[in-house]
Amino acid sequence: MSPEGKRLLNIIILGFGFMFMFTAFQTCGNIEQTVIKSFNSTEFHGSGYTSMAIIYGVFSASNLIAPSVVTVIGPQLSMFFSGLLYSAYIAMFIYPYTWSFYTASVFVGIGAAVLWTAQGNVLAINSTDSTIGRNSGIFWALLQFSLFFGNLYIYCAWHGHVHITDKDRQTVFISLTVISLVGCFLFFLIRKPDPEPVPPEASESLLQAESTESCSTAASPLSGISSQALDAFIKACKMFVTKEMLLLSISIGYTGLELTFYSGVYGTCIGAMTRFGQDAKSLIGLSGICIGIGEILGGGVFGMLNKCNRFGRNPVVLLGLITHFVAFYLIFLNIASDAPIAPEAGTDLQAFISPSVGVALLCSFLLGLGDSCFNTQLLSIIGFMFRDNSAPAFAVFKFIQSIMAALAFFYSNYLLLHWQLLILVVTGFLGSLTFFMAEGLAESTRRESDYDSI
Q1: Alpha-carbon distance 203 to 5, whole Å?
Q2: What is the pLDDT of residue 304?
């Protein structure tokens, strides 16, 4: 197999591994608040929103040390062990206790930071400047198939169920745990890419640094590992305050806010709408499927078009912003304002129009499509601008995204729907403006490199 074919195969395997893992985890996140409301046990007092706030809060802090972990043990083992922590969190729902619920949330937060930093490293070292857009799109599309399969299962399993029994819950979460473990073991199929025939500085990566350091520090392996870990941490801190990353930080933060909304809040809102009838709970799964279709369509189309797009990344981000604004407006009209914080019995309130399942599912699709617009372009621009230091760059990306997601899950416990939508609108608008400025810097950098090569 050619070196380029091997790198493409690695990206596909990476995408399938994440697809299996997040078929389990994203489905878990989508339904956990609804499941928790249906628990028969009076000893359990956990909140799905609070759990997700803990996960993303720990996730954000752990991103500061994640590059060091990936540097020391390599991206492959980093993804495997992180995946085991995800599986343990899902398995906890089979026999849940409050203490194990929140403890598992902390460990998943740590594992998530390492997992996504390693993913960014593998994506970058298996891509070139000409293939980073394509590979980002392929990975994103495969990842978002997780929304389709997991939520299809939920729709079929819970169709017509007004209340989720213990047996329903245990059957679902045993299946999700097995699916997550399959994804973990797929990471062992990823192979180290062949080095490119270019100057060493153009192909520098933390994965290659691991192998070179192991030879150069044979006399003192512990000091070599420590210096590598410290160097990765310092790079991440320095990268956080660069002009490019500061410009991207608002758009990255927006993806964290809307991640919370589409993955945890919106499904709960649909399930709480009693005016949708007895199928309201199963509509959570159908909503997730529509989000997944939007994500897959956007990831595939915009990722592939990135390579041949003469106008850069800005039009795709603008499309994502418009798509989200339309979705937010329709949700404002269609979903009751108290739906995010309604009790297990749901809400009988009506918004500004008669509640429509079709409109609700259309909004799910638009949320997924808009999210893919932002994320594929952020992956692409960060992979391009920070290719020589990919692990610290993606760690900073996930640090910003996760701390905003944690904030959003925290306020989701208290804020009515219209206030949450207002926060999304303002942040999305500001994030798009700063992305356009960062894209201008990236374009000038590309022109300078073209001139230098003449």
Answers
A1: 18
A2: 60
Q: Is residue 23 within 8 Å of 149, Cβ to Cβ? A: yes
**Predicted confidence band at 53 (pLDDT cuts at 50, 70, 90)?**
confident
Tokens of 219: 């006399």
Residue 273 DSSP class: B
Q: Give the number of other CB atoms < 10 A from CB of residue 398.
A: 27
Picking from 331, 30, 259, 261, the residue whose alpha carbon sits closest to that of residue 151 is 30
Cα separations (Å) of 275 from 79, 159, 339, 351?
43, 16, 11, 11
Report which of 262, 241, 282 is spatially closest to residue 340, judged by C-alpha positions. Answer: 262
DSSP code for 194 = P
Residues 6+ apart with CB under 8 A from 209: 71, 228
pLDDT value of position 350: 79
Show Cβ contacts of residue 78 under 8 Å, excluding neighbours closer than 6 positions. 69, 70, 114, 115, 117, 118
Q: What is the pLDDT of residue 214?
A: 43
**CA 379-384-388 angle, 5° bins:** 110
Contacting residues for 89 by C-beta, under 8 A, at least 6 apart: 25, 28, 104, 105, 107, 108
Which residues fall within 8 angstroms of residue 192, CB to CB, at 6 or more apart?
Answer: 207
135 sits in the region (left: phi over 0; alpha: psi -120 to 50; else beta) called alpha
pTM equals 0.72
